[in-house]
Amino acid sequence: MGGRTTCLLPALFLLVIPGSSAISGPGAVRGVEQGSLTVWCQYDPGYEPYVKWWCRGADWSSCCFVVKTIHGSEKEVKKGRVSIKDNWENRSFTMTVEKLRVDDSDTYWCGIERVGADLGDDVDVTIDPAPTEAVSISTRATSNANMFTAPVAPEENQWQLSLLGSVHFLLLVFLKVPLLLGMLGAVLWVNRPLRSSRGKPQENQQPPCSSTLSREKDPQTEEKGIFLRR
Question: What is the largest CA-CA distance in the chain?
Fold first, then answer.
């Protein structure tokens, strides 16, 4: 559980009092693989500033520390997947293990470090394998969620297409149609003088040569008129 670190010295060099009434744990706890587990241990008044620890191993002579608190501090200490925190007001400290593994199952000790003999109480920890049903249910739930969320994409595409159609319609009404009308008007205005010049003669147009010649008087005729008058 979080790996073994510093081991306790053999009992010949370190005095310990297992099962002391000054500290008590839950006795036995269970957890599930990949889950988390929290263990509470209570202690008597007067041990608030002492170092609290959590070690692994059924025998004191081979017990290895997993995590310890800091002397005179309630601050949480974390090492790997295991954390420990002291609470002086409730006179208790808690050990929390995350991402449980089946091989975390073992006998542990919650204890108090002091001069002379440490105090401790053993806790049997059992980690059960994760049920296969939970995995299959989670897989089915994920597939169902994907099945219901899949049709969202076509609806978004349809909305985008309708938006593009609206923009194109607005461009057609406010830009393309006025432009075409303006071009048509320009063409009609340019062609209008051409039809007018071919339909009517200009004011300054000279009369035909035959008219001019018919209006000129013959000199012989004028002479005949003079003789008749006489």
Answer: 184
Give the β-pairing of 92-97 and 82-87.
Answer: antiparallel
User: Quick check: 128 and 31 in contact, CB under 8 A?
Assistant: yes
Q: How many CB atoms lie within 10 A of CB 174?
A: 10
Q: Are 91 and 48 in contact (CB under 8 A)?
A: yes
Beta-carbon contacts of 43 under 8 Å, excluding residues fewer than 6 positions away, are 22, 23, 24, 52, 91, 92, 93, 112, 119
Parallel/antiparallel/unpaired status of strands 51-56 and 64-68: antiparallel
Question: If we measure between CA atoms, which residue out of 128, 36, 19, 145 comes closest to residue 83?
Answer: 36
| Low-confidence spans in the chain with pLDDT less than 70 | 1-20, 133-161, 163-164, 167-169, 171-173, 176, 192-230
Is the pTM for the entire model greater than 0.85? no
The DSSP secondary structure of 92-138, one letter per residue, reads EEEEEE-S--GGG-EEEEEEEE-SSEEEEEEEEEEEEPPPHHHHHHH
